[in-house]
Amino acid sequence: MGLEALGQRDRPDIEAAALFEEMLLGWRHQQLSRNLALSSIDTGARIVRRFATATGAFPWSWAPADLERWVAGLRERHGVARSTVRAYELALRSFLAYVCDPAYDFARACEVRFGAVPVQIVTAMNLARHRVEHETSPRRRPLTRPECQALFDAADARVEAVQRSGRKGTAAALRDATMLKVAYAFGLRRRELLMLEVDDLSPNPKAPEFGPYGVLAVRYAKATAGSGPRRRSVLTVMDWSTEVLAEWVEHCWPRLVTPGTRWLWPSERNPRVSEDRFNAAFARLSTEAGLPAGLSPHCLRHSYVTHLIEDGYDALFVQQQVGHEHASTTSIYTAVSSDYKTRMLRAALDKTLERNARTRKDRR
After folding, report:
1. Is the whole model's pTM more than 0.85, yes or no?
2. Cα-Cα-Cα-Cα dihedral of 99, 103, 105, 108, to 10°?
3. Are 171 and 236 in contact (CB under 8 A)?
4. How far apart are CA 223 and CA 179, in angstroms?
C-alpha cells in the first residue's frame, strides 16, 4: 500500500508506515506459529490493508465508527454478502487483538511516537453475528436428478461437438465432463477433486464389481484451524462412475499427463486444472444445460448428499462419505424432494395405522 493512500488524519511519514508494516509482519509470524493456512494469513493481511486505505489512517487512529462506515459502504454500494462482512470484521478483530496485546508492546510504541494507541474497534455492538448455520445464497441448492442428467448430457454433447469439428480440445472437453461427474458421484469439494492423483483410486475388497475404482482416497479435505488437510476414503456407490473413470484413466489420461506428475486432471498448460478453470467449465455447461443462474460446482456435493439420503443410505454413512464432523452439517446439505417426503410420510402413517389396528384387535 502506497504511503499517499494513508495519512489523511496521520502524518504520512516513513516512521508511521514502517510501524504499520512491522505490525503486519508480527501478526503474520504469530499466525504462522499457530499453524494457520498461508492462504488465510494472506487474505487477512489484504483485508487489513484495504481497511487502512479506505480510512486513510493507521491503526492507532482507527475508531469503531470507521469500521461501521466502511461496512455500510460495502453493503450499500457493493452488495457484499453477510458472510463476507463478518469475515472482514473477524480479520480486523484478530489483527487488533494482536496489536493491542501488551505482550507485543505496540501500544507503548504508538503512544511514544504518535501520542495515540490502537484500540479494538470490532466489538459485540458492531460485529455481524452468525445466527444461522447456512448463509449461502438461496439460489444455491442441490440439483434435481433431471438437472444432473441435463448437466452431464451437455458435457457429453460438448465432447462430441468438439470431436466432430476436428478442432483441438476433445481431451479437455472429456476431462471437464469427467470432473463434473466424479465431483457428483463422490460428493467432493472443489479442492478435494482438483488435488486428486491417479494413485488415489483403488479397489474395494468388499465390492469387487467396481474393479480398480471402488475407493477414492481424499488427501486434501477441508482442514480445521491450525491443522493440515484431513484425509478420508470415499467408497464408490454409483456403479456408472466406474465406467466414467475407466474411460478417462485408461484411454485419455496417459496421453495428457505431464511426465513426472500423477495429477488426475492434467491441464493443457499446467500440471493440473485450476479452480478457476473448473468453475468456468461448470458455468459454461450449466448454461448450456439450461440450469438456473446462481448454481455452483459445490451444488454437486449437495446433490450427492440429498440423492443418497433419498435412496435410503444411512445418514451416518453419508456423513462419513462427505467427511462432515457433525451430523448437523450433513443435514444442512440435504434437501430431499417432495416425493421422498411423501413416501416417508406414507411409510410412517402405514406403521401407525398397523400398530393401532393390532391394538384394537388385542382389546377385543
Report:
1. no
2. 100
3. no
4. 22
Crossing angle of helices 145-165 and 275-288, in 10° steps, is 100
What is the full per-residue pLDDT of the chain (364 aa) written as tens digits?
Answer: 444 444 444 455 789 999 999 999 999 999 999 999 898 999 999 999 999 999 999 999 999 999 999 999 999 998 888 889 999 999 999 999 999 999 999 999 999 999 999 999 999 999 987 554 455 556 678 899 999 999 999 999 999 999 999 888 899 999 999 999 999 999 999 999 999 999 999 999 999 999 999 999 999 988 776 677 889 999 999 999 999 999 999 999 998 988 889 999 999 888 999 999 999 999 999 999 999 988 999 999 999 999 999 888 998 999 999 988 777 666 666 665 556 556 656 666 667 777 777 776 666 6
Contact 113/15 with Cβ under 8 angstroms? yes
Cell of 59: 491503526
Which DSSP helix (H) or strand (E) runs through 218?
A: strand 215-221
Alpha helices in 190-337 (DSSP H): 190-194, 240-247, 253-256, 275-288, 298-310, 315-322, 327-333
Burial classification of residue 74, based on how many CB atoms lie within 10 Å of its CB (0-12 exposed, 13-18 middle, 19 or more buried): middle
User: 126 Cβ partners below 8 Å, 6+ apart?
Assistant: 64, 67, 68, 71, 89
Q: Please give the domain boundaries of the chain with CATH numbers for all domains.
A: 3-114 (1.10.150.130), 145-296 (1.10.443.10)
